[in-house]
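Model it.
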Amino acid sequence: MAEMIGIDMGAGTQMVLVFFLLLFLKVPVAFALGLSSIYAMWELGFGLDLVGDLIATGIAKFSLLAIPFFILAGTLMGSLGIAERMIRFFRVLIGGLPGGMGVVGTVVCLFWGAVSGSGPASVAAIGPLIIKGMNEDGYSRSFAAGLVCTGAALSIVIPPSIGLVIYGVIAETSISQLFIAAIIPGLFLGLLMLATLPFAKRQAPAGGSPSVEALMPMPDAGLGYGQRLWRSFRDSFWGLVTPVVILGGIYSGAFTPTEAAIVATVYAILVGGFAYRTLTVSKLYEATVAASASSAVVMLVVAYASLFGWVVTVDDLVGQYSEALLGLSDNPWVILAVIMLILLIAGMFMDAITIMFIALPIFLPVARELGWDPVWFGVLVMVNLAIGLFTPPVGINLYVAANITKLPLERIAYGALPFLITCAIGLAIIAAVPQMSQFLVDALR
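Modeled.
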């Protein structure tokens, strides 16, 4: 089969096959990458003494420092009560409308995406409160979980995004421009989520929509709407300005995206310690341990992916596979559709970071050959991979939501189906209208 499409069965292709075989055998992704790469290096006649140097070179990149710090910032903000205060504010603001908790859930997911940068972390941080509130507002728990899975997946699209950081490192593209380009597409996908809400089967809760106090008890029960809104805004203010601090600093040139991750972490500590007084030594320790564990998983994949990428380059897999892709059709849109389909299918079985390290070295030369803007292409890739986060059978957001709700994975996947359809439509529109990604970048140049 490989020979039929112009690809030989050299060490590189064997490496890819061994990688998927190891995945099938339930070997962890990072070790599957490492073992298949070492096998290919042995096939090519290179000594294993290169392994250490290649791993060190692959992870010794300044931009990658943003990953552990953004993860730590998001973990801290989730554990210090910032998420709770944000949900309360938006609940007071718009939650009194019929089905308003669905709107609140969507808005909070988008807002949290500008804080966390990680899909699974967002589900864990804001999922329990949103799912509980939507369920009490008449939505089924499966639909509420599907909404949270989808909104949290957009965390890798809405800046600051760990996925965009990694894409920028691989593609050697400006991370700041990627962040700017992703704003409008991310908000557009959020609007599509809102447009999906009326199609939900919803039972009117007994006695009307639950009060804010019923969902999240507050000390100002009985006050008028304006007073409650002001108090909830005042209480959540420091959390609400977090995206302004992070993104404003990046876009104004005050600091780089990598430095922004450190600023976000320090800001979270200051808010928790001085504004909300929720920071304790034990909470700081627990957040650091949790963030370290999550960062270690990501960086282990990055480390072994550097070996994988080296073999791809040495054995000229890029040239072979790129040539095969370009030979499929003379129409660039057909090639783009094939690339998007491959990424969608890959997203059903692998995490976003692994897919980027495997696929981008092959797809980026094709994008350059066809004259596609790497920033626009990066946003497309990220939207595609976001969809994979809540697509069965290995959509990791679904597993986190299943753990929170104790519902079967199948029910949560069914609840996420309407959002999967609308996000697929959104992906097609973002691909067809490049100006959606490029408008702000061009305006700020």
